[in-house]
Design goal:
alpha+beta
Length: 57
């Protein structure tokens, strides 16, 4: 089954800003009991960036 993706609500003008949000999402799971999501940064056609991560039930 393909992973279900959740898109972060904000669009970022730079890849650096998107990578900071990616690090925050990954850090939230680092010390928890759950397996962390896989987090991706995707570039839009207008050279802005979005962050998305997997959601598994």
């Amino acid at each position: 089954m393909a992973p279900r993706w959740i898109y972060f609500k904000q669009i970022f003008p730079t890849k650096f800003q998107a990578s900071c949000t990616k690090a925050k999402i990954e850090d939230n799971w680092m010390n928890g009991y759950e397996v962390g999501p896989s987090v991706e940064i995707r570039r839009l056609k207008d050279d802005r960036y979005i962050v998305r991560y997997t959601y598994d039930e």
